[in-house]
Amino acid sequence: MATARLRVFPHSEEDSRGAAHHAPSVPIRLSDLYPLLAQAYRDNYVWLRDFEDDELLVSNDLYEVIRAFSNCRPSA
């Protein structure tokens, strides 16, 4: 299984000179994100808890799938 790589790019000084503070938004594909989150969760990485209260914006269709999935119960 290939290891996912996360690239971090620092903000330039030009980016930090903005007049208003904006919430960070960086597009990332779910297929790049979930292996990292799964490993961090499985191995109980402390940094993951730092973001527990953060909100994520997801598309309407993904939200509906997640809602439907959370309501499913495994059959006995």
Short description:
This protein has helices at residues 13-16, 30-42, 46-49, 60-71. It is mainly α and 76 residues long. The mean pLDDT is 80.
What does this structure look like?
It is a single chain. The protein contains 4 helices and no strands. The two termini are 32 Å apart. It has a domain of 26 residues. With 76 residues, it is an all-alpha fold.
List keywords for this structure.
single chain; mainly alpha; extended
Write the layout of secondary structure elements.
Blueprint lengths: L12 H4 L13 H13 L3 H4 L10 H12 L5
User: First CA to last CA: what distance?
Assistant: 32 Å
- Overall pLDDT metric: 80
Biggest sheet layout: none
Number of strands: 0
> pLDDT under 50 segments (min length 5)?
none
Radius of gyration based on Cα positions: 17 Å
Helix/strand/pairing category: mainly alpha
Question: What is the global morphology?
Answer: extended
Instruction: Please work out how many helical segments DSSP would assign.
Output: 4
H/E element sequence: HHHH
Helix content: 40-55%
The proportion of strand residues reads under 5%
